[in-house]
Structure formats: C-alpha cells, structure tokens
C-alpha cells in the first residue's frame, strides 16, 4: 500500500543520499525508514535505490519516481481535501514547527484557540527543522510554519514575529556542572559543551557561538549528538552542558536546570512564517487570527526566570 508518508520518506532519502542521514532529519529510527522504503519498492515493483558502501544512489526508476512524486502528493492531498470538505471540513492546513518548540505554550495556545474558532479548518502539525520548513514552504508541502531564522533575502516568505528568544545554559539539576555554572559563565570553559553538528541548524549554531565569542567565552564543544533531545539527555546525566533557546525550555526534562547570563542576552525572533502568494484562504484566516491574538497579548518576551 502506498501513502503520503512513504513518498515523503522517499524524497528525504533521495535528498540526503543516505538512509541514516534522512532518518536523522525525519526524527525516526533507521530500520523503520529502511522498512518504509522497502515497502514502497515492493508496491511499485522496482528498486528505487542502488545501495553502495558510501551511501545510496537513485536508479533510473527512482529518478523518474522522484520527478513524479510532487504530482502524486499534490493529487493525493487534493483528494483528501475533497473528502474532508464533503465531510464538513472545508480545508486542511499543514503547519510546520521546529521540534524543539512543540511544547511552547505561546504556540500551543495559538493552535488550540484557532482550532476551536475554526472547526471546519483542520490543522496538521508537522515537526520540521527550520531549514526543511523553508524548503517545504517553497515546494508547497507546508502552508505555513513556526520557525526562527527565516532568510530575510527570500521575499517569497513573510514572517510575523511571535517571541523574543535568547540563549540559556542547560545542565543537570543538582549536579557538578550546575554548581560551576551558578558561579560564572566562564567557569564552564573547562567542561564539555554537548552540541549537535552545524548542519543540523546552521543559523542557530552560528548565532550561539557568535554570542559566545562576543562574551569571550570558548565552549569546549563535544559534537557527540545528532539532535537537541540527545544533547539534553547527556546534559541531564551531568556529562556536560548544552546551550538552548529560551523558546525550547518547555521541551526540557524536569531534571534539567536552565541558567541565563547577561553575557548571552542578545535576542532573536521566533516567527509565524507563510509563503506568498497565498494559495489557501484558510491561511489568511490563520494570519488574521494570529495578528489579533498578538494585538491582545502583545508580543511575548520569552525570558527565563530562575524561580519560574
């Protein structure tokens, strides 16, 4: 059986040229992704990839299917929208959100209140990194997204600022690292900074270490993890510390302590981003709703307080 998920997974593997790399960006385990690709090949009756020692390559059949995939997705999405409309749901919106912001109450409140007001519009929330969100917005796979680091030079994407964010140090509550971190930021220079590779989020990576450089703080970076949650897991074990966005603090486990420093006080915006021209009227409904929400609540400063 073929479904949207299998096609999207196929596109990701083709994009990254590696099942393991695609699995990392899709936030699923490699065996599950391999199984999805195998099922798709079985359904189509052809091999889509040639497996090599240094990765995989598209076969001629895979190259053709990659060309056809956007049209298949568009047709399936239209069929699903038609069925939803017949069932009383006028439109479906696919909304991206960075995985580290999924528990932020500012975002969840907007989603919840909008869904209560517009019961005939279905929101499908898709955890997606900022880089991938931008690509999917351009491709029309996503209708909008909650993200930071929108490329300002890209005039096809418009952002509505939601939150002012800053950097926080995350470490194990009651551990050795916390006792050092409580004294000063620079005391952490001899401790391991657990961080993901730059390609995972280039803009956040650059912003983070630019702020560290301005503060004359040189983290001892240990790129031993592939994502935010893994970094928090090691930090929670007191194996080092990590640096996160204040907007991500709600995704932290309870045994993590968050510490802010005046040396790392520069802010950046988390935005609601959409693409122009707007293809669906329900996107305009969501834009108007968010604008009214912000007028009532004022733009929230996502600042962490020690006693929170």
TrEMBL record:
<comment type="similarity">
    <text>Belongs to the LysR transcriptional regulatory family.</text>
</comment>
<dbReference type="InterPro" id="IPR000847">
    <property type="entry name" value="LysR_HTH_N"/>
</dbReference>
<dbReference type="GO" id="GO:0003677">
    <property type="term" value="F:DNA binding"/>
</dbReference>
<dbReference type="Pfam" id="PF00126">
    <property type="entry name" value="HTH_1"/>
</dbReference>
<dbReference type="InterPro" id="IPR036388">
    <property type="entry name" value="WH-like_DNA-bd_sf"/>
</dbReference>
<keyword id="KW-0238">DNA-binding</keyword>
<keyword id="KW-0804">Transcription</keyword>
<dbReference type="InterPro" id="IPR005119">
    <property type="entry name" value="LysR_subst-bd"/>
</dbReference>
<keyword id="KW-0805">Transcription regulation</keyword>
<feature type="domain" description="HTH lysR-type">
    <location>
        <begin position="2"/>
        <end position="59"/>
    </location>
</feature>
<protein>
    <recommendedName>
        <fullName>HTH lysR-type domain-containing protein</fullName>
    </recommendedName>
</protein>
<dbReference type="Pfam" id="PF03466">
    <property type="entry name" value="LysR_substrate"/>
</dbReference>
<dbReference type="GO" id="GO:0032993">
    <property type="term" value="C:protein-DNA complex"/>
</dbReference>
<dbReference type="GO" id="GO:0003700">
    <property type="term" value="F:DNA-binding transcription factor activity"/>
</dbReference>
<dbReference type="InterPro" id="IPR036390">
    <property type="entry name" value="WH_DNA-bd_sf"/>
</dbReference>
């Amino acid at each position: 059986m073929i479904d949207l998920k299998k096609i999207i997974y196929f596109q990701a593997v083709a994009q990254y040229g590696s099942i393991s790399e695609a699995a990392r960006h899709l936030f699923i385990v490699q065996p599950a992704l391999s199984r999805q690709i195998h099922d798709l090949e079985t359904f189509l009756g052809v091999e889509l990839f040639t497996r090599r020692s240094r990765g995989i390559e598209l076969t001629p059949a895979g190259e053709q299917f990659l060309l056809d995939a956007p049209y298949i997705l568009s047709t399936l999405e239209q069929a699903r929208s038609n069925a939803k409309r017949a069932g009383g749901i006028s439109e479906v919106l696919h909304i991206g959100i960075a995985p580290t912001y999924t528990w932020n109450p500012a975002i969840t409140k907007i989603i919840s209140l909008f869904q209560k007001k517009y019961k005939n519009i279905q929101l499908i929330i898709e955890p997606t990194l900022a880089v991938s969100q931008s690509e999917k917005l351009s491709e029309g796979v996503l209708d909008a997204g909650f993200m930071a680091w929108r490329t300002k030079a890209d005039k096809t994407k418009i952002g509505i600022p939601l939150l002012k964010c800053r950097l926080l140090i995350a470490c194990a509550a009651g551990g050795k690292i916390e006792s050092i971190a409580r004294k000063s930021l620079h005391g952490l220079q001899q401790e391991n900074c657990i961080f993901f590779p730059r390609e995972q989020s280039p803009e956040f990576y650059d912003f983070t270490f630019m702020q560290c450089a301005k503060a004359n703080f040189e983290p001892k970076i240990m790129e031993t993890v592939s994502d935010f949650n893994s970094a928090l897991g090691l930090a929670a074990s007191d194996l080092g510390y990590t640096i996160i966005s204040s907007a991500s603090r709600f995704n932290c486990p309870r045994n993590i302590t968050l510490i802010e420093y005046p040396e790392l006080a520069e802010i950046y915006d988390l935005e609601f981003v959409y693409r122009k021209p707007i293809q669906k009227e329900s996107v305009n409904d969501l834009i108007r709703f968010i604008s009214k929400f912000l007028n009532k609540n004022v733009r929230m400063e996502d600042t962490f307080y020690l006693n929170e």
